[in-house]
Design a protein that fits this description.
The protein has 21 helices and 16 strands. The chain is α/β, with parallel strands linked by helices. It binds phosphoenolpyruvate and magnesium ion (MG).
C-alpha cells in the first residue's frame, strides 16, 4: 500500500483503477505553401469549426456546471476570433508562406509568451487559454481528435494538469475522481470538479508513477490522500466513508426547497457567503436563501488601481439582479491586516491586525468610501440590498458611516439617479468592544452580523493567521460564545435582527446553541447550506435551549 499526500479540492471518495490521461498531440510539419489564398481559407474554415465547437462546449458547461464554467468557453470563442491573433496568423501565411498549422502554433507561442510576461496574474493565466484555443484549431486542421478515455470501466483519472476544455469534454460517467500533478484549489479543474461533485486532488507532483496505471487507487478529496493498492482494512474503511457520504448527499438533495425550521417550528434564515458575482451559481444549486456576506474586497484585490464607481456598480448590480429579489448583504471594503493592496499605499505597521483596516481606512479616506457607497446605492435599485460595515468598535464610527450614506443618497436624489430608500444598514460584530456596547450600537443600525473569525482573534488575543496557535485559537471558547449571546440579546431588545457570517456559523456542533440564542440568520459557504438545514430540522429547541444557554454562562462545553 502506498499513500501519497496531495491537496484535496473537491470532497468525496473515489475508488477504482488509475488511468493516465493521454493527450492526442498533432505532429506538425512546417512547409512552404504555394497557394496562400487556399491556405488562408483552410485556416478560416478551421477557425469557424473551432468557434462552433466552443459554443457547443459553453452550452454543455452551462448545463453541467453553470454560467462561470460556460464563460470560460465564451472567452475562448472571443480569443479564436480576436483580430490581433487573426492578423498575426495571416501575416505568417501570406507573408512567410507558412502552412496554417505551423502558423497557428507559432502565433500561439508568441501570444502565450506575451501573456506570461505580464505582471497581472489574471493576464498570465490567459496564456493557457490561448494555447488551448490554438491546439483546438491545429487539431481541426490536422484531423486529430482530442480527449476521450479509452477505458470501458470508470477510472480515477490522473493527469499533469487538465485544460478546462479537456475536463468539460470528458464523459463524466467514466470518471470516479481526478488526481493532478499540478494545479491549485482555484484551478478550473478544481472548480468544475466541485460543481459536479467529483472528488479531486491536486498537487501530487511526480509521486504518481506510470507503473501504477491500472492498479486500484483510492482518492479522498476531503483529506487529499491518494492510496495506491489499499489493504483490505483501508478499503473497507473508505468504502464505509463513501457510502456514508452518498447517503448524506442523497438526504441533503431531498432538503432542497424545504424550510429551515426546527421540530418546534422555529425558523432561521440560511444565507451564503460569496467573494464575487461568479459564486452565484453555487448559491443557486445549494438553495441558499440570500447572500449574508458579499466580501467586496475582491473588486479591489483583482484590480491594479482603485475600481471606479461604474465598475463597482456593475458587480453589485450583477449580484442583486442575479439573486432575483432575495436579500443581499454587501460588506463595505475590508482590507488591511492580511489583505494588503499595493496601490492603497498603506503605511507599514507593527501590528496590522490592530491597525489601519476596514472601516478605519474608509473613515480616514472618505473619497474611497463615498465611491463604494454611491455604487452600492445605485445598485440598490436592482434588488434587496443591505450594506454592512466591518471592524466597528465605537458608536461614532457607525454614525459617521451613516452620515456618508445620507450624503450619498441626497446627491443621488438631486441627480435623479434611482436607488432603494429601504436599504438596511448593519454592522459586523467582530470586536469585543462592539459586542460589549451592542446595546448602544443596536440603536444605530438595522442588523448585526457576527464575524466570528475576527471576534475569536480579538477576544482571545490569537492571530487568526498563525497556524502554530492551534488549540489556543478556539472559537468555542465561552468568552466568544458569551459575546455572541450578549449581542443577540441586545439586538432583540432593540428590535433588530442578528446573524453570524464567520466560519462558526457552519459549525454543526453549535447549531442548536445558535438556535437557542435566537440567532436569526446564519451565512455560510454555499456547500454548507444543506448540511446546516438538515441540522436545523433535527433540532427541538424546547428540549435543548435552557440547558445550552445555561452551559454558555457556566462551562461550555468542557472549557
Ligand atoms: C469574520 O471575521 O468572521 C468575517 C466573516 O470576516 P473576514 O473573515 O472576511 O474577516
Ligand atoms: Mg472579519
Amino acid at each position: 500500500m502506498i499513500t501519497i499526500q496531495g491537496k484535496g479540492v473537491s470532497a468525496g471518495v473515489g475508488m477504482g483503477p488509475l488511468y493516465f490521461y493521454r493527450r492526442a498531440t498533432a505532429t506538425i510539419s512546417r512547409r512552404e505553401v504555394a497557394d496562400t489564398v487556399a491556405e488562408w481559407q483552410r485556416f478560416k474554415g478551421a477557425q469557424t469549426t473551432a468557434i462552433t465547437q466552443l459554443g457547443e462546449l459553453a452550452e454543455k458547461a452551462r448545463a453541467e456546471a453553470g454560467d462561470e464554467a460556460a464563460m470560460l468557453f465564451e472567452t475562448h470563442q472571443m480569443m479564436a476570433e480576436d483580430l490581433d491573433y487573426e492578423e498575426a496568423i495571416e501575416e505568417k501565411i501570406n507573408g512567410e508562406k507558412l502552412n496554417a498549422e505551423a502558423a497557428v502554433r507559432d502565433v500561439a507561442a508568441q501570444f502565450a509568451a506575451m501573456f506570461e510576461s505580464m505582471d497581472d496574474p489574471y493576464m498570465q493565466a490567459r496564456s493557457a487559454d490561448v494555447k488551448d484555443v490554438s491546439d483546438r484549431i491545429v487539431g481541426i486542421l490536422s484531423g486529430v481528435v482530442q480527449g476521450g478515455i479509452a477505458s470501458d470501466v470508470p477510472v480515477l483519472l490522473a493527469a499533469d494538469d487538465l485544460a478546462p476544455s479537456e475536463t468539460v469534454q470528458m464523459d463524466k460517467t467514466k470518471i470516479l475522481g481526478f488526481v493532478t500533478a499540478g494545479g491549485s484549489g482555484s484551478s478550473h479543474t478544481a472548480i468544475l470538479a466541485r460543481t459536479m461533485g467529483i472528488p479531486a486532488i491536486v498537487g501530487v507532483g511526480d509521486a504518481l508513477k506510470p507503473e501504477y496505471e491500472g492498479r486500484t487507487v483510492i482518492a479522498d478529496g476531503a483529506t487529499g490522500d491518494v492510496i495506491v493498492d489499499p489493504d483490505d482494512m483501508t478499503r473497507d474503511r473508505m468504502l464505509k466513508k463513501r457510502a456514508e457520504q452518498l447517503r448524506l448527499q442523497r438526504l441533503l438533495e431531498t432538503l432542497k426547497g424545504q424550510p429551515n425550521e426546527t421540530k418546534d417550528g422555529k425558523s432561521i434564515r440560511i444565507y451564503c457567503n460569496i467573494g464575487s458575482p461568479e459564486d452565484l451559481h453555487a448559491v443557486d444549486v445549494n438553495d441558499g436563501g440570500g447572500i449574508g456576506l458579499f466580501r467586496s474586497e475582491f473588486l479591489y484585490l483583482n484590480s491594479k488601481d482603485y475600481p471606479t464607481e461604474d465598475e463597482q456598480f456593475e458587480a453589485y448590480r450583477k449580484v442583486l439582479s442575479g439573486m432575483d429579489g432575495k436579500e443581499v448583504i454587501i460588506r463595505t471594503l475590508d482590507i488591511g491586516a492580511d489583505k494588503q493592496i499595493g496601490y492603497f499605499n498603506l503605511p507599514k505597521e507593527e501590528n496590522p491586525a490592530m491597525g489601519m483596516r476596514a472601516l478605519r481606512i474608509c473613515l480616514t479616506r472618505p473619497e474611497i468610501f463615498q465611491t463604494q457607497i454611491r455604487a452600492l446605492y445605485r445598485a440598490s435599485a436592482y434588488g434587496k440590498l443591505g450594506i454592512m460595515f466591518p471592524m466597528v468598535t465605537s458608536v461614532w464610527e457607525v454614525r459617521e458611516a451613516k452620515r456618508i450614506c445620507t450624503e450619498v443618497k441626497r446627491a443621488l436624489k438631486k441627480e435623479g439617479i434611482p436607488y432603494d430608500e429601504h436599504v438596511q444598514l448593519g454592522i459586523m460584530i467582530e470586536t469585543p468592544a462592539a459586542a460589549i456596547i451592542s446595546d448602544r450600537l443596536a440603536k444605530e443600525v438595522d442588523f448585526f452580523s457576527c464575524g466570528t473569525n475576527d471576534l475569536t482573534q480579538y477576544t482571545l488575543a490569537c492571530d487568526r493567521q498563525n497556524n502554530d496557535l492551534g488549540r489556543f485559537y478556539d472559537p468555542h471558547h465561552p468568552a466568544v460564545l458569551r459575546l455572541i449571546k450578549l449581542a443577540a440579546e441586545n439586538a432583540h431588545k432593540n428590535g433588530i435582527w442578528i446573524g453570524i457570517c464567520g466560519e462558526l456559523g457552519a459549525d454543526l456542533t453549535l447549531t442548536e446553541t445558535f438556535l437557542a440564542m435566537g440567532i436569526d440568520e446564519l451565512s455560510v459557504s454555499p456547500r454548507a447550506v444543506l448540511p446546516l438545514r438538515n441540522a436545523v430540522r433535527m433540532t427541538d429547541t424546547r428540549e435543548s435551549a435552557p440547558r445550552l444557554l445555561e452551559a454558555i454562562e457556566d462551562e461550555y462545553p468542557a472549557n
